[in-house]
């Protein structure tokens, strides 16, 4: 009788002990420090900037996506699978984990460390044809990237672009995009990229589908200019506006023997020392020259050279910041 009672008592004690261990484990898990947004951005910003330099994906977009998809690194997928971007298996040959998402028991990629997730996220976007249009956008156009990701089918949430943009703007993640390529020279200024305006559009190519009956004088940065037509030369335009050829060439920062093609901006007054305040900085695109940027904003070329501590024939890189206003 006593032996039977002792057996029952021991079993009861073991059950209580097991329940206590389980409870303590659950309690300890609940007490683990969770990442805040600030924690997440501070920890992973260097990876996002590194990937921006490698692939051209804005660091702000990478950070916002990682934060949103992983609940600031606290999701099961992030803590157990180091998957911060919700990338599913597709043609994945590595380790996998399964969880409910848009459908039940979906397959997700598992990485050895979070850094591998950031690498794969960049490569995933860079190598999929449906995301190719994103890489034609300005590296600093986080709004365009946010919408483009949704349009390409990255997420099913119709509010996905707005969620990313809110994260970027509320936490000033666009400042990390400044870390990619700074203006070369001594004038390194931090610029609030969320406030950069798109360059002025001076040429409406649709207007050239019909013959213009007369020359239209337009205004850019309070400077008068015209658009060249087929057969124009700097000399013929100088005569038309009662200017000396050297004056017109100086206004446009070109040499006297420069060739003038159709649909080019030709200023008939001196350009200004600064662009309009809303521009501040221009993000160079592939193939642009300093003279082209000078014409775009109606700013004297020598002023742009001085603002950026550059030389006239110095090449510029795609994505480089060129200051056009002090």
Sheet with most strands: 3 strands, antiparallel
Strand ordering within the main sheet: 3-4-5
Low-confidence segments: 24-31, 180-188, 205-212
Radius of gyration: 29 Å
Mean pLDDT across every amino acid position: 82
At the first level of CATH, the class of the largest domain is Alpha Beta
Please work out how many helical segments DSSP would assign: 11
Q: What CATH architecture of the largest domain would you give?
A: Roll
The number of domains: 2
- How much beta, percentage-wise? 5-15%
Structural class: mainly alpha
Based on Cα principal axes, name the global outline.
elongated
**Number of distinct beta strands:** 7
Indicate the percent of residues in helices.
40-55%
CATH topology of the largest domain: Membrane-bound Lytic Murein Transglycosylase D, Chain A
Could you explain the architecture of this structure?
The structure is a single chain. The protein has 326 residues and is mainly alpha-helical. The chain has helices spanning 2-31, 37-55, 59-70, 76-81, 114-127, 142-151, 160-170, 234-240, 245-251, 290-297, 301-308; strands spanning 96-99, 106-109, 218-220, 223-227, 265-267, 281-283, 321-323. The protein contains eleven helices and seven strands. A hairpin with a 2-residue loop joins strand 3 and strand 4. The longest helix is centred in the N-terminal third of the chain and has 30 residues, at 2-31. It folds into two domains: 37-180, Lysozyme (Orthogonal Bundle); 182-326, Membrane-bound Lytic Murein Transglycosylase D, Chain A (Roll), CATH 3.10.350.
